[in-house]
Amino acid sequence: MLVQLENLEKAYGDGADRQHVLRGVSLDLDRGESLAITGESGSGKSTLLHLIGLLDAPDAGQIILDGDIVSTLNDTGRAQRRREQIGLVFQQFNLAPSLTVASNIALQARLARRFDPAWIAKLVERLGLSDFQARYPEQLSGGQQQRVAVARALAAKPVLVLADEPTGNLDEETSARVLTLMLELCADAGTAMIMATHSLQAAGQTSRRVHLSRGRLS
Ligand SMILES: Nc1ncnc2c1ncn2[C@@H]1O[C@H](COP(=O)(O)OP(=O)(O)OP(=O)(O)O)[C@@H](O)[C@H]1O
Question: How close is the Cα of 13 to the center of ligand 1, in Å?
Fold first, then answer.
């Protein structure tokens, strides 16, 4: 098993403002599997992805990644695991504005010490980024930036990619195409993917689906 979530709980705020967003979320994900998490706006999809992506820690429960309990790691330990094993595609893309497309893509792989020029060349070619490599993020359209974010997330061949509404800003046809590519590239790299989405069409493209409602998965 690649990812095991056991009874995750997460609340925000204090006193009367306290909001229990996750109320006991359990989930298993195999290597190479793709999973869509659907749920209404505010149901906690991003919160759950942040926990799995080790960007935040749960209040209770356990996250096991690749056989290790990672939910109790400190910030440094979490950052290291994230760098080595997880790729993130979030809504704002978070590309480094001062780096070219080529450097944005390569950076993650270099940090993880897994820079493989042939794999990077394949990502660039398959994602249609060949002509944009010398450009800076601000010189790209939203869709192009998103493809750079996908290439960057997969550059180090992580065991897991987390995508938060990865096609949220694109029209339906483009988003289906980008998602298909992303799933194919994940399959090539043996990477599992968890995607949060509002779109039932997008959720139809993954191998499994779960629904988040009232703090629990079904
Ligand atoms: N850092 C935070 N501090 C306080 N409340 C938060 C924080 N992050 C999220 N929330 C609240 O937790 C709830 C779940 O938010 P979350 O972003 O996880 O939902 P979501 O399902 O991803 O929503 P959307 O589909 O709109 O992106 C929301 O009510 C939100 O306001």
Answer: 12
Does ligand 1 come within 6 angstroms of the Cβ of 12?
Answer: yes
Q: Using a 6 Å cutoff on CB, does residue 44 contact ligand 1?
A: yes
Instruction: Identify the structural domains of the chain with CATH numbers, from first to last.
Output: 3-217 (3.40.50.300)
Q: Is the pLDDT of residue 32 over 90?
A: yes
Is 95:149 a contact under the CB 8 Å cutoff?
A: yes
pTM, two decimals, is 0.94
Name the phi and psi angles at 3, rounded to 5.
-125, 130
Res 170 pLDDT > 90: no
- Measure the CA–CA gap between 42 and 24, rounded to whole angstroms: 17
Long-range (24+ apart) CB contacts under 8 A made by 151-154 are 151/105, 151/120, 151/123, 151/124, 151/127, 152/87, 152/95, 152/104, 152/105, 152/107, 152/108, 153/87, 153/88, 153/89, 153/108, 154/87, 154/123, 154/182, 154/185, 154/186, 154/189, 154/191
Given a cut of 80, is residue 167 above it in pLDDT?
A: no
pLDDT tens, residue by residue, 183-204: 999 999 999 999 999 888 889 9
